[in-house]
Amino acid sequence: MDAEKLRALQIAPEAKSRPQRPMWLIFGAVLLLTGAAFFFAWPRAADKKRVFAGNRSTKTAVAASAPSPASADRSVAKAPAAIGASNGEPILTVSGYIINRERIELSPRFMGVVKWIGVKKGDAVTNGQVVVVLDDAEQRARLLEAEGRRATAKSAVTKAEIDYRRVRKLIAEKIETQQLEDDLRLRLESTRASLKEVEGTMALAQTYLDWTIIKSPINGVVLEKLVGANELVTPQSFGGNRGPSTALIAVADPKDLQVEIDLNEADLAKVYMNQRCRVTPEAYQDKSYEGYVAERAPEANRQKGTLQVKVQIINPDQYLTPELTAKVEFLR
Questions:
Q1: Of 22, 166, 215, 285, whose CA is between 20 and 30 Å from 266?
Q2: Higher pLDDT, 307 or 34
Q3: Spatial distance between the Cα atoms of 143 and 137, rounded to a whole number of angstroms
Q4: Is residue 16 pLDDT above 60, yes or no?
Q5: In the prediction, which pLDDT does 73 show?
Q6: d(CA 31, CA 34)
Q7: Which carries the bigger pLDDT value, residue 28 or residue 128?
Q8: What is the pLDDT of residues 203-236, one digit of tens each?
Q9: What are the start-end ranges of the E strands in 123-205?
Q10: Is the CA virtual torsion 222, 228, 234, 236 positive or negative?
Q11: In what order do the strands lie in the sheet with 112-117?
Q12: Residue 323: left if φ>0, alpha if ψ -120 to 50, beta else—which one?
C-alpha cells in the first residue's frame, strides 16, 4: 500500500524537463518593452513643438525666438527700398550758378602780331586744332641766323680735327713738339663746345617759331574771342574793361559743368563730399540732372559767412548754359 502511494507521488522523468521556448519568448518581450521605453523617453527636437488650439500651424520654440528664413528674406528685401526712399529726399535746397569746371585762356608766349585767327565765339574746337597764328617773320629770321652760325661752327670743328690729326702724325715722326699737340687738342674741344652752343641757340629759335602756332588743348567751345587779326598782343595786355589779360581766346568743355554755390555756414553739417544732388536749371524747371559734391573750398569767406561748394553735373546737355542760375537739392 505504501509502495503504491510513493509511486503515485513520484514525478515522471519526461515531466521534469521544462520547455525552453516560453522562456525565450518572455526574455524577448522584456527587451522589446525596455527598448520601447527608451525610445519614447529619449528627448527629441519634435518634443519642443507646441500645438495651439484653433490653429493647425505648428511653430517650434526656436522659430518663436528667431525669424524664419522667409521672414528674414522679406525684412532684407524691404531695407534697400526704405534706404532708397530716404536717399531721394532733399535735406537742403540752395541756388547757385552753372560754370565750366575748367576755363582755359590761351595766351601768347611773347609779343607779336596776330597773323590769323580761325575761330569765333561759340565755335567748337578739338584738341590740337590750330586756332591762332602769330606773325613768325622775326622767329624765322632768328632761326636762319642760327643755322648760319651752326654751319660756321661745323667748319671750325672740321678744320680743328684735320689740324689735330696732322700734328699727331708729325709728333710721331719727332718733327713737332708735344706742346703744339696740346694746343691743337684744346682748340678742337673749344670748337666743338661752340658748335653745341650754336645748336642750342638754333633749338631756341625753333621753339619760338613753334610758339607762333597756338592750338587748342582740349575738345570744347570758344567762350570768348579776345583779339582779332593784325592786333598786337603781349604776354600782358589790357583788353577793354577786363583789366590786365594775357589771353587770345577762352575755351571750355561744355560737357564738364559744375554748379558753384556759396553755402551758409549754418548748413555745412548737411553737406559732405560725394553727396548725391539733384540739379534743376531755373530756365527749364521741368528738367533735372544728377550730380554730386565734387569740391569744397579750403577756407570760408569771413565777410559773407559762407563756404564755396561746387557740385559736378553728370551728363549735362545743351539746356545747361554757364553763368545761368540753377537750383541744387542735396539728397539725404
A1: 285
A2: 307
A3: 10
A4: no
A5: 38
A6: 5
A7: 128
A8: 999 999 999 999 999 999 999 998 889 998 888 6
A9: 124-125, 130-134
A10: negative
A11: 213-215, 130-134, 112-117, 232-233
A12: left
Q: How far is CA 164 from CA 93, 174, 175, 183, 185, in A?
A: 84, 15, 14, 9, 6
pLDDT of residue 292: 97
Asked if 249 and 226 count as a contact pair (C-beta separation under 8 A), the reply is yes
Specify the length of the chain in residues. Answer: 332
What φ, ψ does residue 38 adopt, rounded to 5°?
-65, -40
Long-range contacts of 23-29 (CB under 8 A, 24+ apart): none
Dihedrals phi, psi of 123, to nearest 5 degrees: -75, 145
Give tens-digit pLDDT for 61-105.
333 333 443 333 333 333 333 333 345 789 999 999 999 999 998
The C-alpha cell of 309 is what? 561748394
Looking at the domain covering 103-134+214-252, what would its CATH class be?
Answer: mainly beta
Query: What rounded mean pLDDT belongs to the chain?
Result: 81
Task: Specify whether the CB–CB gap between 114 and 229 falls below 8 A.
Answer: yes
Asked if domains 90-101+254-331 and 136-211 share a fold, the reply is no
pLDDT above 90 covers what percent of the chain? 58
Question: Between the CA of residue 111 and those of 140, 202, 222, 231, 246, what are the distances in Å?
Answer: 15, 20, 23, 11, 11
Q: Which residue has the cell 604776354?
A: 235
Domain 136-211 has CATH 1.20.1510: no
CA distance 6 to 16: 17
**Cross-strand pairs, 251:** 104, 222
Domains in the chain: boundaries: 90-101+254-331, 103-134+214-252, 136-211
Residue 50 pLDDT > 60, yes or no?
no
